[in-house]
Design goal:
The chain has 201 residues and is α+β, with helices and mostly antiparallel strands. It folds into two domains: 43 residues, no CATH class; 140 residues, Nucleoside Triphosphate Pyrophosphohydrolase (Alpha-Beta Complex). It is 18% helix and 41% strand. The strands form three sheets. Strands 4, 5, 6, 7, 9, 10 and 12 form a seven-stranded mixed β-sheet that branches. Strand 2 and strand 3 form a beta hairpin. Helix 2 crosses helix 3. The longest helix has 14 residues. The mean pLDDT is 92.
């Protein structure tokens, strides 16, 4: 084990980074994503051709491309049921989605709260819980996570996203048990609930 202070994130210039890109080609794209195949090489001489990088088309400062928000009503947590086609199973999730041009991540979180949960929250009751990298080895985007306190019904749910189901209410103890039993396995939701529970202590 190496002792000492950890280096600051992104504390190196492009020429000093331990992995360098020598070629990039776009493999495919859709309305939200660009998929690139890069030719990379490490300082130790390890070379990888066709290293896949999935890059969101819209990113804010800090490469934030998405948001996730945990709704709270009367000290109870709101989770929705969603069927996710790639894994062919249901998950408990919090509302989440992409940022849009010209938005702040806070505005995006309030929009997703309305669109995916049919709830509204005063801006001053939206609290930042931190940023996460959903898949740092492949996905070139960060997600800002929030908790929306004192939520109330409002807004208009957008039911166009495939697999989105209804919202359900859980006590803090139920949510904790669902985390510990792995009944909640979607990563943004796990992180948001755990950070919220830690903040309560």
């Amino acid at each position: 084990m190496i002792e000492g202070a950890a280096p600051a994130v992104n504390d190196k210039s492009d020429d000093e980074r331990p992995v360098r890109n020598f070629d990039r080609r776009k493999a495919l794209e859709n309305t939200k994503w660009n998929v690139y195949l890069d030719h990379i090489r490490t300082d130790q001489g390890v070379e990888v051709r066709n290293y896949m990088v999935v890059e969101p088309k819209i990113r804010l400062d800090g490469k934030v491309s998405g948001v996730a928000v945990l709704p709270v009503i009367d000290a109870k947590l709101i989770l929705r049921r969603a069927y996710r086609y790639p894994l062919e199973q249901y998950f408990w999730e919090i509302p989440r989605g992409f940022v849009e041009p010209g938005e702040t991540s806070e505005y995006s979180a309030l929009r997703e709260l309305s669109e995916e949960a049919g709830m509204i929250c005063a801006p001053e009751d939206l609290r930042f819980l931190g940023s996460v990298a959903p898949e740092a080895s492949t996905l070139a985007g960060m997600v800002d996570i929030f908790v929306a306190l004192k939520c109330r019904p409002g807004g208009t749910r957008d039911m166009q996203e495939p697999g989105l189901g209804d919202c359900h209410v859980f006590t803090v103890n139920q949510a904790r048990e669902m985390i510990m039993s792995n009944e909640v396995s979607e990563s943004h939701t796990q992180i948001a609930v755990c950070r919220y529970l830690l903040a309560m202590n």
